[in-house]
Amino acid sequence: MKTEILKIKSPQEKEKIQKAARILQKGGLVAIPTETVYGLAANALDKSALAKIFKAKGRPVDNPLIVHVCKVEQLYNLVTDLSEEACLLAEAFWPGPLTLVLEKSPTLPKEVSAGLETLAVRMPDHPIALAILEEANIPLAAPSANLSGSPSPTCAAHVADDLVGRIDAIVDSGACSVGLESTVLSLVGPKACILRPGGVTRQAIEDVIGSVELDPGVFRPLEGNQAPLSPGLKYKHYAPKASLILVEGSLEGFIELLSSVEDKKGIGALCFDGEEKMLPLEICVSYGPRDDSEIQAKRLFSALRALDELPGLKTIYARSPKGSGMGLAVYNRLLRSAAFDLIKTK
Ligand code: AMP
Ligand code: MG
Known about the structure:
By secondary structure, this protein is α/β, with parallel strands linked by helices. About 25% of the residues lie in helices and about 20% in strands. Helix 1 (about 15-25) crosses helix 4 (about 125-135). The protein has 2 domains: about 5-220, DHBP synthase (Alpha-Beta Complex), CATH 3.90.870; about 245-345, Rossmann fold, CATH 3.40.50. The structure holds adenosine monophosphate and magnesium ion (MG). The site of magnesium ion has 3 residues, from loops. Adenosine monophosphate binds near residues 64, 101, 181, 184 and 196.
Protein backbone atom coordinates (compact mmCIF):
# COMPACT_ATOMS: atom_id res chain seq x y z
CA MET A 1 0.00 0.00 0.00
CA LYS A 2 1.27 3.50 -0.83
CA THR A 3 1.24 5.81 2.19
CA GLU A 4 0.53 9.41 1.29
CA ILE A 5 2.27 12.11 3.35
CA LEU A 6 0.08 15.19 3.90
CA LYS A 7 2.03 18.09 5.37
CA ILE A 8 -0.52 20.31 7.14
CA LYS A 9 0.59 23.38 9.09
CA SER A 10 -2.75 25.05 9.68
CA PRO A 11 -6.44 24.10 9.84
CA GLN A 12 -6.97 26.63 7.02
CA GLU A 13 -5.40 24.15 4.57
CA LYS A 14 -8.89 22.90 3.71
CA GLU A 15 -8.04 20.71 0.74
CA LYS A 16 -5.61 18.54 2.67
CA ILE A 17 -7.90 18.38 5.72
CA GLN A 18 -10.70 17.24 3.40
CA LYS A 19 -8.43 14.63 1.83
CA ALA A 20 -7.60 13.12 5.24
CA ALA A 21 -11.29 13.22 6.24
CA ARG A 22 -12.45 11.51 3.02
CA ILE A 23 -9.97 8.65 3.52
CA LEU A 24 -11.33 8.17 7.07
CA GLN A 25 -14.98 8.31 5.92
CA LYS A 26 -14.21 5.59 3.35
CA GLY A 27 -12.83 3.29 6.06
CA GLY A 28 -9.11 4.03 5.59
CA LEU A 29 -6.34 4.62 8.15
CA VAL A 30 -4.74 8.06 8.65
CA ALA A 31 -2.07 8.89 11.23
CA ILE A 32 -2.95 12.25 12.74
CA PRO A 33 -1.10 14.62 15.08
CA THR A 34 -2.47 15.22 18.57
CA GLU A 35 -0.96 17.12 21.49
CA THR A 36 -0.02 13.83 23.22
CA VAL A 37 1.43 11.52 20.53
CA TYR A 38 0.51 10.80 16.90
CA GLY A 39 -2.66 8.70 16.67
CA LEU A 40 -3.60 6.07 14.09
CA ALA A 41 -7.16 7.12 13.26
CA ALA A 42 -10.07 5.17 11.77
CA ASN A 43 -13.87 5.50 11.80
CA ALA A 44 -14.91 4.33 15.28
CA LEU A 45 -18.31 3.21 13.92
CA ASP A 46 -16.89 0.99 11.17
CA LYS A 47 -15.94 -2.57 12.20
CA SER A 48 -13.71 -3.24 9.22
CA ALA A 49 -11.86 0.08 9.61
CA LEU A 50 -11.23 -0.83 13.28
CA ALA A 51 -9.89 -4.23 12.27
CA LYS A 52 -7.36 -2.46 10.02
CA ILE A 53 -5.95 -0.54 13.03
CA PHE A 54 -5.21 -3.78 14.91
CA LYS A 55 -3.63 -5.32 11.80
CA ALA A 56 -1.44 -2.31 10.87
CA LYS A 57 -0.11 -1.92 14.43
CA GLY A 58 0.12 -5.62 15.24
CA ARG A 59 -2.01 -4.71 18.28
CA PRO A 60 -3.38 -7.54 20.43
CA VAL A 61 -7.14 -7.71 19.74
CA ASP A 62 -7.98 -7.50 23.45
CA ASN A 63 -6.39 -4.03 23.82
CA PRO A 64 -9.21 -1.44 23.50
CA LEU A 65 -8.95 1.84 21.57
CA ILE A 66 -9.49 5.45 22.63
CA VAL A 67 -12.22 7.25 20.69
CA HIS A 68 -11.62 10.91 19.79
CA VAL A 69 -14.36 13.51 19.42
CA CYS A 70 -14.47 17.23 18.62
CA LYS A 71 -17.75 18.05 20.43
CA VAL A 72 -19.08 16.87 23.80
CA GLU A 73 -22.48 16.22 22.13
CA GLN A 74 -20.90 13.36 20.17
CA LEU A 75 -20.73 11.45 23.47
CA TYR A 76 -24.53 11.08 23.54
CA ASN A 77 -24.28 8.36 20.87
CA LEU A 78 -21.15 6.77 22.26
CA VAL A 79 -21.85 6.28 25.97
CA THR A 80 -25.00 5.48 27.94
CA ASP A 81 -24.59 7.80 30.90
CA LEU A 82 -22.82 11.13 31.27
CA SER A 83 -22.37 11.66 35.00
CA GLU A 84 -21.90 15.06 36.59
CA GLU A 85 -18.26 14.10 37.29
CA ALA A 86 -17.69 13.33 33.60
CA CYS A 87 -19.20 16.68 32.57
CA LEU A 88 -17.10 18.60 35.09
CA LEU A 89 -13.93 16.90 33.90
CA ALA A 90 -14.74 17.41 30.22
CA GLU A 91 -15.38 21.06 30.91
CA ALA A 92 -12.14 21.46 32.83
CA PHE A 93 -9.77 19.49 30.60
CA TRP A 94 -11.17 19.16 27.07
CA PRO A 95 -9.81 19.66 24.60
CA GLY A 96 -6.81 18.10 26.35
CA PRO A 97 -4.89 14.97 27.42
CA LEU A 98 -7.52 13.36 29.66
CA THR A 99 -9.28 10.18 28.53
CA LEU A 100 -12.46 9.20 30.37
CA VAL A 101 -13.62 5.59 30.63
CA LEU A 102 -17.45 5.52 30.63
CA GLU A 103 -20.26 2.99 30.03
CA LYS A 104 -20.27 2.16 26.31
CA SER A 105 -23.36 2.45 24.19
CA PRO A 106 -24.37 -1.06 23.01
CA THR A 107 -24.82 0.19 19.44
CA LEU A 108 -21.07 0.72 18.95
CA PRO A 109 -19.03 -2.07 17.39
CA LYS A 110 -17.52 -4.27 20.11
CA GLU A 111 -14.12 -4.14 18.34
CA VAL A 112 -13.60 -0.54 19.48
CA SER A 113 -13.53 -1.53 23.15
CA ALA A 114 -12.12 -5.01 22.55
CA GLY A 115 -15.32 -6.49 23.91
CA LEU A 116 -15.45 -4.41 27.14
CA GLU A 117 -18.74 -2.80 28.22
CA THR A 118 -16.88 0.49 28.69
CA LEU A 119 -15.48 3.05 26.26
CA ALA A 120 -12.46 5.36 26.51
CA VAL A 121 -13.06 8.83 25.01
CA ARG A 122 -11.29 12.15 24.76
CA MET A 123 -11.14 15.42 22.82
CA PRO A 124 -7.60 16.14 21.55
CA ASP A 125 -6.12 19.62 21.93
CA HIS A 126 -4.65 19.96 18.48
CA PRO A 127 -6.01 22.28 15.77
CA ILE A 128 -5.34 19.84 12.91
CA ALA A 129 -6.82 16.83 14.75
CA LEU A 130 -9.92 18.88 15.58
CA ALA A 131 -10.24 20.14 11.98
CA ILE A 132 -10.04 16.56 10.65
CA LEU A 133 -12.60 15.34 13.24
CA GLU A 134 -14.98 18.15 12.28
CA GLU A 135 -14.58 17.63 8.56
CA ALA A 136 -14.99 13.84 8.79
CA ASN A 137 -17.95 14.31 11.15
CA ILE A 138 -17.43 10.88 12.74
CA PRO A 139 -15.82 9.81 16.01
CA LEU A 140 -12.31 8.50 15.38
CA ALA A 141 -10.71 5.58 17.19
CA ALA A 142 -7.01 6.41 17.44
CA PRO A 143 -4.40 4.46 19.40
CA SER A 144 -0.79 5.62 19.21
CA ALA A 145 0.51 5.40 15.62
CA ASN A 146 3.42 3.03 16.28
CA LEU A 147 3.96 -0.69 15.91
CA SER A 148 2.55 -2.28 19.05
CA GLY A 149 5.13 -2.40 21.85
CA SER A 150 7.57 0.17 20.44
CA PRO A 151 8.01 3.74 21.78
CA SER A 152 5.07 5.99 20.87
CA PRO A 153 5.54 8.43 17.95
CA THR A 154 5.96 12.11 18.79
CA CYS A 155 6.61 13.29 15.21
CA ALA A 156 5.58 12.15 11.72
CA ALA A 157 9.02 10.62 11.00
CA HIS A 158 8.50 8.18 13.91
CA VAL A 159 5.14 7.16 12.41
CA ALA A 160 6.72 6.70 8.98
CA ASP A 161 9.51 4.52 10.47
CA ASP A 162 6.90 2.12 11.88
CA LEU A 163 3.91 2.29 9.53
CA VAL A 164 4.85 3.37 6.00
CA GLY A 165 3.32 0.91 3.54
CA ARG A 166 0.78 -0.27 6.15
CA ILE A 167 -1.60 2.73 6.29
CA ASP A 168 -3.24 5.12 3.79
CA ALA A 169 -1.81 8.45 4.91
CA ILE A 170 0.26 10.30 7.50
CA VAL A 171 -0.60 13.89 8.37
CA ASP A 172 2.66 15.66 9.23
CA SER A 173 2.12 18.68 11.50
CA GLY A 174 5.43 18.70 13.37
CA ALA A 175 6.27 17.60 16.90
CA CYS A 176 3.65 16.85 19.60
CA SER A 177 3.57 19.41 22.41
CA VAL A 178 3.00 17.02 25.37
CA GLY A 179 4.92 14.01 24.04
CA LEU A 180 3.33 11.36 26.32
CA GLU A 181 -0.10 9.74 26.10
CA SER A 182 -3.22 10.98 27.82
CA THR A 183 -4.15 10.23 31.42
CA VAL A 184 -6.74 7.42 31.40
CA LEU A 185 -9.32 7.93 34.17
CA SER A 186 -12.01 5.34 34.80
CA LEU A 187 -15.35 6.69 35.98
CA VAL A 188 -17.21 3.37 35.93
CA GLY A 189 -16.12 1.89 39.27
CA PRO A 190 -17.21 2.93 42.79
CA LYS A 191 -14.44 5.56 42.84
CA ALA A 192 -12.69 7.46 40.00
CA CYS A 193 -9.39 5.70 39.27
CA ILE A 194 -6.34 6.63 37.18
CA LEU A 195 -5.51 3.60 35.02
CA ARG A 196 -2.65 5.31 33.21
CA PRO A 197 -0.91 8.53 34.33
CA GLY A 198 -0.43 11.02 31.50
CA GLY A 199 -0.70 14.60 30.31
CA VAL A 200 -3.15 15.69 33.07
CA THR A 201 -1.80 15.23 36.60
CA ARG A 202 -3.58 13.48 39.49
CA GLN A 203 -3.53 16.78 41.42
CA ALA A 204 -5.24 18.67 38.57
CA ILE A 205 -8.01 16.02 38.46
CA GLU A 206 -8.41 16.07 42.25
CA ASP A 207 -8.77 19.85 42.15
CA VAL A 208 -11.94 19.31 40.08
CA ILE A 209 -13.60 16.14 41.51
CA GLY A 210 -11.82 15.47 44.79
CA SER A 211 -9.68 12.43 45.62
CA VAL A 212 -9.11 9.75 42.96
CA GLU A 213 -7.41 6.36 43.17
CA LEU A 214 -4.29 5.25 41.33
CA ASP A 215 -4.44 1.76 39.79
CA PRO A 216 -1.64 -0.44 41.25
CA GLY A 217 -0.76 -1.44 37.64
CA VAL A 218 0.89 1.97 37.31
CA PHE A 219 3.75 0.79 39.54
CA ARG A 220 3.95 -2.97 39.25
CA PRO A 221 3.25 -5.85 36.90
CA LEU A 222 0.00 -7.74 37.23
CA GLU A 223 0.11 -10.83 39.40
CA GLY A 224 -0.58 -14.28 37.95
CA ASN A 225 -3.81 -14.26 36.03
CA GLN A 226 -5.17 -11.02 37.57
CA ALA A 227 -7.45 -9.26 35.04
CA PRO A 228 -6.23 -5.74 34.28
CA LEU A 229 -8.64 -2.80 34.51
CA SER A 230 -6.88 -1.38 31.47
CA PRO A 231 -6.03 -4.29 29.17
CA GLY A 232 -3.16 -2.36 27.53
CA LEU A 233 -1.32 -2.50 30.85
CA LYS A 234 -0.53 -6.18 30.58
CA TYR A 235 1.66 -5.82 27.49
CA LYS A 236 5.31 -4.91 27.16
CA HIS A 237 5.18 -1.31 26.03
CA TYR A 238 7.19 1.72 24.95
CA ALA A 239 10.24 -0.53 24.74
CA PRO A 240 13.44 0.17 22.83
CA LYS A 241 15.10 -2.80 21.09
CA ALA A 242 17.90 -3.09 23.69
CA SER A 243 16.82 -4.10 27.18
CA LEU A 244 16.37 -1.18 29.54
CA ILE A 245 17.09 -1.09 33.28
CA LEU A 246 15.66 1.80 35.28
CA VAL A 247 18.02 3.11 37.97
CA GLU A 248 16.57 5.02 40.91
CA GLY A 249 18.96 7.11 43.02
CA SER A 250 21.54 9.88 42.85
CA LEU A 251 23.91 10.73 39.99
CA GLU A 252 26.79 9.43 42.14
CA GLY A 253 24.99 6.11 42.60
CA PHE A 254 24.40 5.92 38.84
CA ILE A 255 28.08 6.59 38.07
CA GLU A 256 29.16 3.97 40.61
CA LEU A 257 26.81 1.40 39.12
CA LEU A 258 28.03 2.05 35.55
CA SER A 259 31.67 1.95 36.69
CA SER A 260 31.10 -1.49 38.17
CA VAL A 261 29.96 -2.91 34.82
CA GLU A 262 33.05 -4.80 33.61
CA ASP A 263 32.33 -5.24 29.91
CA LYS A 264 30.98 -1.91 28.67
CA LYS A 265 30.57 -3.04 25.05
CA GLY A 266 26.95 -2.61 23.95
CA ILE A 267 26.06 -0.66 27.11
CA GLY A 268 24.40 2.76 26.88
CA ALA A 269 22.90 5.33 29.24
CA LEU A 270 19.72 7.37 29.14
CA CYS A 271 20.48 10.36 31.35
CA PHE A 272 19.61 13.96 32.12
CA ASP A 273 21.02 16.94 30.22
CA GLY A 274 24.62 17.77 31.11
CA GLU A 275 25.37 14.38 32.71
CA GLU A 276 26.82 12.83 29.55
CA LYS A 277 30.36 14.07 30.22
CA MET A 278 30.35 12.62 33.76
CA LEU A 279 29.36 9.07 32.85
CA PRO A 280 31.92 6.32 32.19
CA LEU A 281 30.23 5.29 28.92
CA GLU A 282 30.54 6.35 25.31
CA ILE A 283 26.87 6.00 24.43
CA CYS A 284 24.78 8.48 26.39
CA VAL A 285 21.48 10.02 25.26
CA SER A 286 19.78 12.62 27.43
CA TYR A 287 16.03 13.19 27.76
CA GLY A 288 15.76 16.56 29.45
CA PRO A 289 16.82 18.55 32.52
CA ARG A 290 16.67 16.59 35.80
CA ASP A 291 14.07 18.88 37.32
CA ASP A 292 11.79 19.48 34.33
CA SER A 293 9.24 16.65 33.95
CA GLU A 294 7.44 18.41 31.10
CA ILE A 295 10.54 18.55 28.92
CA GLN A 296 11.35 14.94 29.86
CA ALA A 297 7.84 13.94 28.73
CA LYS A 298 8.35 15.75 25.43
CA ARG A 299 11.72 14.13 24.72
CA LEU A 300 11.51 10.63 26.23
CA PHE A 301 10.14 8.69 23.24
CA SER A 302 12.50 10.46 20.77
CA ALA A 303 15.40 9.57 23.04
CA LEU A 304 14.32 5.89 23.14
CA ARG A 305 14.04 5.86 19.35
CA ALA A 306 17.49 7.54 19.06
CA LEU A 307 18.93 4.70 21.16
CA ASP A 308 17.30 2.22 18.77
CA GLU A 309 19.31 3.73 15.91
CA LEU A 310 22.62 2.81 17.57
CA PRO A 311 23.96 -0.50 16.29
CA GLY A 312 25.08 -3.14 18.75
CA LEU A 313 23.41 -1.65 21.80
CA LYS A 314 22.37 -4.44 24.19
CA THR A 315 21.55 -2.80 27.52
CA ILE A 316 20.46 0.72 28.45
CA TYR A 317 20.75 2.01 32.02
CA ALA A 318 18.22 4.82 32.49
CA ARG A 319 18.16 7.58 35.09
CA SER A 320 14.82 7.57 36.87
CA PRO A 321 12.77 10.80 36.95
CA LYS A 322 11.04 12.15 40.03
CA GLY A 323 7.71 10.36 40.21
CA SER A 324 5.32 13.19 41.06
CA GLY A 325 3.16 15.51 38.93
CA MET A 326 3.90 15.00 35.24
CA GLY A 327 6.96 13.03 36.39
CA LEU A 328 4.64 10.16 37.40
CA ALA A 329 3.72 9.62 33.73
CA VAL A 330 7.38 9.76 32.67
CA TYR A 331 8.30 7.31 35.45
CA ASN A 332 5.47 4.95 34.47
CA ARG A 333 6.56 4.86 30.79
CA LEU A 334 10.19 4.16 31.72
CA LEU A 335 9.18 1.49 34.21
CA ARG A 336 7.17 -0.23 31.48
CA SER A 337 9.99 0.22 28.90
CA ALA A 338 12.12 -1.60 31.45
CA ALA A 339 9.47 -4.30 31.88
CA PHE A 340 9.61 -3.30 35.60
CA ASP A 341 13.38 -4.05 35.86
CA LEU A 342 14.37 -1.50 38.53
CA ILE A 343 17.63 -1.05 40.44
CA LYS A 344 17.90 1.24 43.47
CA THR A 345 21.25 2.91 44.23
CA LYS A 346 22.32 5.43 46.87
P1 AMP B 1 -3.06 3.81 23.23
O1 AMP B 1 -4.16 4.53 22.55
O2 AMP B 1 -2.24 2.95 22.34
O3 AMP B 1 -2.24 4.78 24.02
O4 AMP B 1 -3.72 2.83 24.27
C1 AMP B 1 -4.96 3.11 24.87
C2 AMP B 1 -4.94 2.78 26.34
O5 AMP B 1 -6.23 3.05 26.87
C3 AMP B 1 -4.60 1.33 26.62
O6 AMP B 1 -3.76 1.24 27.76
C4 AMP B 1 -5.97 0.73 26.93
O7 AMP B 1 -5.91 -0.39 27.79
C5 AMP B 1 -6.71 1.91 27.56
N1 AMP B 1 -8.16 1.77 27.36
C6 AMP B 1 -8.85 1.96 26.21
N2 AMP B 1 -10.15 1.68 26.39
C7 AMP B 1 -10.29 1.31 27.68
C8 AMP B 1 -11.41 0.90 28.47
N3 AMP B 1 -12.62 0.80 27.96
N4 AMP B 1 -11.19 0.59 29.76
C9 AMP B 1 -9.95 0.67 30.29
N5 AMP B 1 -8.85 1.06 29.59
C10 AMP B 1 -9.02 1.37 28.30
MG1 MG C 1 0.02 2.92 22.47
